[in-house]
Amino acid sequence: MKPFWCSKVSGNKLKFNGDELVVKKASKGAINRVDKLCDEENEYKRKKVYLPYIFSIIQIVALCIAGIGALSLYLGTDYNIVSLDDFEWCVVILVTALSGVVLVGIFSYEKIRQINYEKSDICAEYNARIDNVFDSIYLEMGVPIDAPYVDFLHFNYRLNGAGVVPVKTEKYSQLFNIWDFKFYSDNKKLYMASDEAVYAIDIASIKGIKKIDEPISISVDKRQKKRIAKFEKYNVKGRFGTFKIESYYIMEFEHKSDFWGLYFPWYELPVIEELTGIKAQ
Description:
The chain is of the alpha+beta class. It has 6 helices and 16 strands. The chain has helices spanning 28-48, 53-78, 86-118, 121-140, 225-233, 269-276, and strands at 2-3, 7-10, 13-16, 22-25, 149-154, 156-160, 163-167, 177-185, 189-193, 197-202, 206-212, 216-219, 238-239, 242-245, 248-255, 258-265. A 5-stranded antiparallel β-sheet has the order 4-10-9-8-5. Strands 1-16-15-11 form a 4-stranded mixed β-sheet, with no helix packed on it. A 4-stranded mixed β-sheet has the order 3-2-6-7, with no helix packed on it. The longest helix has 33 residues, at 86-118. It is elongated, with a radius of gyration of 25 Å. 19% of the residues are buried.
């Protein structure tokens, strides 16, 4: 089986599945507009949000001093390897503590700047401009404005006798990730649109939708507010940024003699069933 929008691990390489299903692509000009706008925002953040490189150097120096001080205290108090008089120990403790304060202070200051930026009108303006560009891309590719965003699962995998086996790689710390595309249909094909291309599946080629009663974990950054809001809407439980999806489905279909699967969370089943007219097994 070829899982849609997933990558097969072959040696040290990943072979992406999905290009075979592309029926439309966004123009290079549209994609360049997105890249240009993202570069513009990143440049603003580099100048106004992120701290100058000198602060990174100070953090590294403070970390080294704090590490040496902590090690000296550990070796001196537990093993008597480091021998200093009372005044020297006081200096070591003071310098170590100050280095720790510098580390925490710089880290906290930059986080505050980032949080303030995310709440600012400038950030909202950039987000609105990016949304407008994406809307124009969807319009260019003929994607209906009211097409819903549908979550589906992405993972890297290997094949063995049991079939598809998700695996971790150096790039990804978790087995599963979630992507969302705009889904729509015309009674003959099911379309899935990213902001760069439209993928299509012949509805007649769909063999069925089966449920997999196995929980999976998804880590979500707190800045992904739309994703977290969707999890809350469907009562997907989470803790410390990790959410547990109790089960998922695989929509199985054929394309040019190849057997494919679209993996998606349980809460997207009603949308998939409505768009395809096929009920889950």
